[in-house]
Amino acid sequence: MSTKSGLLLGLACVAAIAAVGSVFELSSGQPPLGNWxxxxxxxxxxxxxxxxxxxxxxxxxxxx
Length: 64
Known about the structure:
By secondary structure, the protein is mainly alpha-helical. It has helices spanning 3-28, 35-62.
């Protein structure tokens, strides 16, 4: 695994944590950052996490 793969995988993990946290905050009723900010974080973190994970997997395969 290259450094690039590791960084992309780390980014995917952080984005997944942000997405799960946003879902829990939105379901609680009163997110500390507000509904809009939390919804925007959720909307951005899901595709970013998927993209980073796929890019990490492709990079790891290419560098085997």
